[in-house]
Amino acid sequence: MDRIERIKHRLFEKDYLTKKDWWGENLTILTDEEVKKKPLIIRKSLAVQYVARNMPIELKPDELIVGIPTMASVGFGKCFPGYALPEEIEEGARYTYTEKSIFGHHPANYNKILTMGLSGIREEVYSSIQKADHLQDREAIDFYTSVIISLNAVAELAQRYSILLMEEANTCDSQERKQELMDMSRICSRVPELPATTFHEALQSVWMVFVLFHSTMEFLPIARADQYLYPYLKKDLEMERISIDQARELLGSWLAKFSERVQLDPKQWEMHMTEKDTQFNGADPKSFAASDGYANDEDYNYGTSANHWLINMILGGLTPDGKDATNPLTYMILEEWSFLEAIVPVMSVRFHKDTPQKLYDLCADILRSGSGEPVLYNDDAIIPGLIRIGIPLEDARDYSNDGCWETLIPGKTNFGFCTLEILQLLEYILQDGYSIVRNRKEWNCVNLKELHTFEEFYNEFLKQLEIAAVREMENRMRNIKARYKIAPSPLLSAFMDDCILRGKEYSDTGAVYQIFAFMLTGFASCVDSLAVIKKCVYEDQLLGLEELAFVLKTNFKGQEPLRQKLLNRVPKFGNDEAYVDDIACQLLDDYAAIIDRLREKAPVGNIFACGIATFEFYAKFGHDVGASADGRFAQEPLGSNYSPSIGMDMTGPTAAIKSVTYPNLLPYAIGAPLDLQIDPNEVKGEQGLKRLTGLIKSFMELNGLMLTITGVNQEMMLKAQKEPMKYKSLRVRLGGLSAYFISLSKEVQDSLIKRTKHTL
Questions:
Q1: What CA–CA distance (Å, rounded) separates 146 from 409?
Q2: Residue 367 domain-assigned?
Q3: Is residue 36 part of a domain?
Q4: Which Pfam families has this protein been placed in (predicted)?
Q5: 15/143 Cα distance (integer angstroms)
Q6: For residue 170, what are the contacts with CB-CB under 8 A and spacing of at least 6?
Q7: How does strand 346-351 pair with strand 312-316?
């Protein structure tokens, strides 16, 4: 095997199956009275420094890029030394925030790391301090102090690795490996302290900073890697400093680093969350959308996000000046990532009208192998939508994504979102404000007897939806600075545009853009249910509204013939049927108008946007809701994101695409992914590849926003359930990430098996 084959073998046969050690739990820096007297943001940076000085470091066989983040997980928690005083913790809890309420999601300005180095950013800090207003601003001085401490922490971590590499070189028997280790030691002594000068230095510089981000609770994406790394590769190749094969080795080693924390065996997973860690991170606990976190420890959803760190990479697209951004590194990254059969980073690719055919072919070829990625983005639809909410053209063209799929501007965005669970809201209207699953009153609604027509019913639904959105907006405004006061991010702020210029932490108005998205959740089931209510209750009078409410409350007990009528008598979203698609179109227009009205009330500097999302939690969101009018049983999973309900898109992928692109999606540029599952047998050979690229192009031409395609058949998944160790690399898409199928709960696996397998 060559180097990258050996690294891949190590990942699947050793690293993924070895229980990970969690480091940093129950540590504190509050052991000195002088430390306790310092401002909280400085104490936070001292905790970052403590991690850099004390976290375990390790060299892996064959690797050319070094650095391993401490173990953490979106699903199971994160460990970090305590730095907040009891009274500060108590104050944060008033707003449901803790020391661990780091939101992540925000890609840094990685080009700044490469072109300025830590030394250049320090000079930027010192220069900014000299501004007269900053010299008089104690809070700004504290911020700058915390940034300097954080930058120095990155340098210390790099030097620790430089020393480790030299020590390993001194004991290495292989002269070839000894030289590699010495070169790597020299590189770690240079970067990220100084600007990168080679492709190897650029990869190591970005990764070293990334290691400390992810070891200090910052679950961050990697953004447009082919854009900021390509100049270094191009120069190396032109000057003949490296060959293409050497570049591929460096790149493969770099990409493998993202996956080393993956834990494939669920028996080795463990929760590292306290009761306080499961607080709502700024959400209103009285909100109808607030439930018990994301339930990663529940059997039905166990470990869905276990191997997720919000690490999304996006390639291709347009440059800020409007040219095609595709370059040789775009293809090289995709090829090496595909070979590794990785689920980290989450891979995405941007397309536009001038995207080369070669990129379509490569992505389609990867997708038909069953990876579930790359996620496909449509620049021609997304960029105008970003401009609509106030993003300037050049920045809109430079968009990236967060750790799932939401669009934002890399290095410039403080991003947040809430979910408006509209199927739950529909249940409230039908059940007098009660939750069927939780058996308690949670909302105030009008009496059903007052809703004499479908128009009255629908308008009541819109009224309640706007009330919910206003509540979320008010909560956002009330808590907008609360997170900063207990969980600031001086390290990330050092690499975010304008923070140093303004003397502000990125979430405390430091970032260029403050974007907050209001996400519709449970869209397809809600639309299908509205269609049933319109058709069966008001038009055909098959049953009354109160009778329907009772049937749903009893979960269709003794009413299977009626349930079948609700399932089959009314068209379902995703089949190119005007009856239900018109309702979807109306709902999206009306919801966009609601958010537009909220945008007019937003404080200066805040951008409100809308999207459609379940992320990977469609099983969790479904588990919170009782039976629905579309014929869905209580607590069954919902359709993912902007996709049809599970098993309801029966007329092929083209029909599904026509349904989801029928509405005006311009207001939804933050994100509304369609998740399709196709039969891989239908896309074999050259003709199969042409059919799949044709499907992708049709989606783009019809102004779809985001598309995921998983080419895995039922037979393969059923075999994987029976003999999991034979299918370790089988990957599936889960709405906001991809996962190894064998690591998922039985309920989530079964929901994937039940999805419609489209024939092209």
A1: 25
A2: no
A3: yes
A4: Gly_radical (PF01228), PFL-like (PF02901)
A5: 39
A6: none
A7: parallel
Q: What is the token pair recorded at 36? A: 């306790």
Name the residue range of residue 116's domain. Answer: 3-306+318-331
> What is the pLDDT confidence band of residue 747, given thresholds at 50, 70 and 90?
confident
Residue 319 token pair: 């440059």
Higher pLDDT pick, 403 / 35:
35
- The pLDDT value given to residue 360: 98
DSSP code, position 75: T
Nearest-angstrom CA–CA distance, 228 and 206: 10
Block residue for tokens 């106030």: 390
Asked if residues 378 and 360 have their Cβ atoms less than 8 Å apart, the reply is: no
Percent above pLDDT 70 for the chain = 96
Tally of domains in the chain: 1
Please indicate, yes or no, if residue 156 is contained in any of the structural domains.
yes
Assign residue 12 the CATH number of its domain: 3.20.70.20
Predicted pLDDT at 479: 85
In contact, 468 and 461? CB cutoff 8 Å = no
What 3 state SS string does 167-197 have? HHHHCCCCHHHHHHHHHHHHHHHHCCCCCCC
Q: Each residue of 224-257: pLDDT tens digit? A: 999 999 999 999 999 999 999 999 999 999 999 9
* Structure confidence at residue 292 (pLDDT): 44
Q: Is 144 helix (H, G, I), strand (E, B) or coil?
A: helix
Average the pLDDT over 510-523 and give the result.
Answer: 97
With a CB cutoff of 8 Å and minimum separation 6, the contacts of 538 are: 453, 454, 457
